[in-house]
């Protein structure tokens, strides 16, 4: 910046010097012209030019030409105003000793009738000077002064002398110096103000950028863009004022946001649970809030919110979102499969015990008793599960799963029974999907029966296959649903899933046993993926308004393989040998 100011000052000085030189020359020329056209001066110069002998210095020092020239010089501040006759002899000069002498510079141009503007050095030093011819003009003054009419015929354009006006070079340079000095002072002031402003701006930028250099900022931006676009989690950054500053594509997709930057969470319509989490993090001196699981639209999200600060300065809040919808679905399926495997393990153990009994009877030759024992086993069913009417279910997966659920229900004082309309002739080809949906409905029904006001606590399950589809109906002895809650139980509520049941119960909303925050919406999603559905067939109610609690139905498409689709074993030959 100092170099720029210096260059500008030098350039101004050069331009100002040229302009001042030209201005001084133009001023000298204008003054010389004015004086040369003065009729009185023309008369005096013409008179002196016609004199046979040159006038003496004593005659000229107080003469009219000297007085007129000095008056002009004093008024204009010129270095000199010199008047000569047609021979170049000085008739007026600032130095009286120079009067009557020939001028030091060549007067030929002016005495020839031309004007001359030069920058030259004379007896008074270097100056910007202009020389203008003095012409004869009207001769009436000479005739009156000479007292005779015998003069030759006058030529008004005849040159009878010259006027030379000059301005000292020092005066021109002094004016330039004053201008340059003023410019230099202003430039230095501007330089000082600029330096101060630059320092303030640098400190402010350092504070805003946390002391990072431009190259570091560029690298940080590149790294941030790569990280935010590459991570599987959603990242949402909020400034201290609560407005969104950063939102990666994953966060926008999970929260359903469009152009979120610069807007608050309230403006974006973000779930109140997330807004509260951000507010808690901002208010918490430790800079964070507990992790929570929240339901947003159709997704189950695990949310971490933390306040960010550096050097005691609040930089805002960061929210990290993880989609756990698929994990939750897998967890529920794993729970169902675990329950079914437990049931199968019990069944295997019971089956092994029965085989030991049969083997013992056969080994001792008690064939008739073994036959009677096997007949009794066939009547009782494959395993001693506490499932009422378990023999109505022949499908092995359903049989084992309902047995396991019956054992869990029995521990809570609830009887699980199979409805009389149950008829499943095919075989399950997607048992984990069936057990996930059925397990959730049964768990909700058991919970409702436990909380219900009826003394007889039961849950009834009916299953019916129709081609490749499986229809399920689960009813219970609970107090049912309010009519207004039949749709709400399938709505995902943006609250902590872990405490959903308690929150709903405390709020007096939906039935505390049905719609536990995420289970029913999840199983409905599972059913609808392949064209099925889950719905409330009958809201039921407490006694004596209704005979039973709520009835939930489900239709699962493509989960059953009809028995006709399975390959048949080849018929044996008439002799009993294998075909």
Automatic annotation (TrEMBL):
A molecular-function term among this protein's GO annotations: ATP binding
Membrane topology category: Multi-pass membrane protein
Domain Histidine kinase: 431-560
Composition skew (Polar residues), residue ranges: 101-111
Subcellular location(s) of the protein: Cell membrane
CC terms in the record's Gene Ontology section: plasma membrane
EC class of the enzyme, as a word: transferase
Organism in which the protein naturally occurs: Clavibacter michiganensis
Keywords carried by this UniProt record: ATP-binding, Cell membrane, Kinase, Membrane, Nucleotide-binding, Phosphoprotein, Transferase, Transmembrane, Transmembrane helix, Two-component regulatory system
Region (Disordered): 94-113, 135-154, 560-579
Protein name according to UniProt: Sensor-like histidine kinase SenX3
GO terms under biological process: osmosensory signaling via phosphorelay pathway
Listed transmembrane segments: 180-201
EC number: 2.7.13.3
Annotated coiled-coil segments of the chain: none
Highest taxon above the source species: Bacteria
Catalyses which reaction(s): ATP + protein L-histidine = ADP + protein N-phospho-L-histidine
Signal peptide span: none
């Amino acid at each position: 910046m100092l170099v720029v100011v210096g260059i500008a000052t030098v350039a101004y000085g050069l331009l100002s010097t040229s302009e001042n030189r030209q201005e001084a020359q133009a001023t000298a020329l204008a003054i010389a012209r004015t004086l040369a056209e003065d009729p009185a001066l023309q008369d005096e110069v013409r008179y002196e030019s016609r004199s046979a002998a040159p006038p003496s210095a004593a005659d000229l020092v107080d003469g009219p030409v000297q007085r007129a020239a000095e008056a002009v010089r004093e008024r204009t501040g010129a270095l000199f105003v010199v008047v000569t006759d047609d021979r170049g002899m000085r008739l007026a000069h600032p130095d009286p000793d120079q009067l009557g002498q020939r001028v030091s510079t060549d007067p030929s141009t002016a005495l020839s009738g031309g004007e001359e503007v030069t920058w030259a050095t004379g007896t008074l030093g270097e100056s910007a000077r202009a020389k203008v011819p003095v012409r004869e003009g009207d001769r009436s003054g000479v005739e009156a002064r000479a007292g005779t009419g015998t003069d030759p015929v006058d030529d008004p354009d005849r040159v009878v002398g010259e006027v030379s006006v000059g301005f000292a070079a020092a005066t021109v340079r002094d004016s330039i110096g004053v201008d340059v000095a003023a410019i230099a002072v202003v430039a230095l002031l501007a330089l000082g103000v600029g330096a101060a402003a630059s320092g303030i701006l640098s400190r402010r930028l350092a504070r805003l950028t946390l002391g990072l250099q431009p190259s570091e900022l560029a690298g940080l931006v590149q790294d941030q863009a790569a990280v935010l676009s590459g991570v599987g989690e959603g990242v949402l950054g909020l400034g201290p004022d609560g407005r969104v500053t950063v939102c990666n594509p994953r966060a926008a997709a999970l929260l359903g946001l469009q152009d979120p930057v610069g807007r608050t969470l309230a403006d974006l319509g973000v779930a109140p649970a997330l807004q509260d989490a951000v507010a808690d993090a901002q208010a918490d001196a430790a800079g964070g809030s507990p992790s929570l699981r929240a339901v947003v639209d159709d997704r189950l999200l695990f949310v971490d919110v933390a306040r960010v600060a550096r050097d005691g300065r609040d930089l805002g809040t960061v929210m990290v979102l993880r989609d756990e919808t698929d994990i939750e679905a897998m967890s529920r399926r794993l729970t169902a499969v675990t329950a079914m495997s437990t049931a199968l393990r019990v069944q295997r153990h019971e089956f092994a015990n029965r085989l030991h009994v049969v083997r013992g009877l056969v080994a001792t030759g008690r064939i008739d008793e073994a036959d009677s024992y096997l007949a009794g086993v066939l009547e009782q069913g494959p395993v001693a599960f506490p499932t009422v009417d378990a023999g109505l279910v022949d499908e092995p997966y359903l049989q084992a799963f309902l047995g396991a659920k019956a054992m869990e229900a029995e521990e809570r004082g609830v009887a699980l029974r199979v409805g009389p309309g149950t008829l499943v002739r095919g075989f399950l080809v997607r048992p984990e999907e069936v057990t996930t949906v059925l397990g959730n409905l049964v768990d909700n029904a058991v919970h409702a029966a436990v909380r219900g006001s009826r003394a007889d606590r039961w849950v009834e399950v009916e299953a019916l296959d129709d081609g490749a589809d499986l229809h399920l109906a689960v009813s219970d002895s609970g107090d049912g649903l309010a009519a207004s809650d039949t749709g709400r139980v399938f709505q995902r509520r943006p609250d902590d899933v872990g405490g959903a049941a308690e929150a709903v119960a405390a709020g007096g909303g939906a039935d505390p046993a049905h719609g536990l925050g995420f289970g029913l919406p999840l199983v409905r999603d599972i059913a609808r993926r392949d064209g099925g559905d889950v719905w409330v067939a009958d809201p039921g109610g407490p006694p004596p308004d209704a005979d039973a609690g709520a009835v939930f139905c489900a239709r699962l498409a493509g989960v059953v393989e009809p028995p006709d689709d399975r390959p048949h074993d080849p018929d044996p030959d008439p002799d009993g040998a294998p075909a």
